Amino acid sequence: MNERIKMTDETPLLTKADPNSPALKVEGLGAVLIKAGTAFAGMSFDADTAVRIDGLEPGTDYLVQIESGAPVAVKHADGGGAPCLGGFHFAPGGNAEARGGGDSVPAINPFSLWDRDYRPACADPRGMALVEMPGRKFWCDIYLTGVDCSRNGTSAFGVTIADGDDCPRDSDGERYRRFDYSTAAAVMAVHGKGLLSVEEFFAAAFGVTEKTALDRDPKTTGLDAPRTSRFGIMQATGNMWIWGHDGDPDMPRASMFGGSWLSGGHAGSRYAVVAYYWPGSSNDSLGARGRSDHLQLG
């Protein structure tokens, strides 16, 4: 895990009634509870217990910590000084409930809840949502990859989208010359992530308003409610093509998914060019989105 939530020999053990789900749950739009049957940092929660939250900012990741014997939510950037149970993302809009996209009412994304034993396998859980598909689970970046992902992580709200015109910076702060398939894969690898397979993209993007696209270059990561997915993936389709692969387990081939603002009525959760697209391409309508395996302990 990252430096704010890393495990040490002194880290309190987490026990919970159901190891197959996070120790946290959402109530309404902006309340988080620790589930009954959870024990952590010397505290036992016999009943569902509210986490103290002193205000929420859309597009922000929060940690749930134990401070002075009580659970409290703090911004990820401000956390790290107390035992961390888990966290969540407060999104700028709600998830799709059917197949018509989401809404513009800020809400905690229920699929972003994680705890120390139920989380992305990558080091940094910020800005990710758990996607369930037949037979397995994986975590998907809520936001498109940004230019300054070495500082903000690969999934951050309100940042410049990385593409062929605005290439991402590497860990030394130098810009890549291109944002082609190999560069996108390399950027994700630095963060312990990968690119989506075609099947994973289909699952993550389900729920968007199909056959629609934004009418302009989105430029920055954020809310485009008609194209928010069931799992709260923002700008999931019709904003930027994203680099991915065909899913071959031995020799995955470059693919692209979702369509860009130039795609009009072709864009959607099933719009893909698979095992065909030229991996050396780099342009202003082609970006990326990361994914991580699911890690479940206990």
TrEMBL record:
InterPro entries: CTDL_fold, SUMF_sf
Protein name: Uncharacterized protein
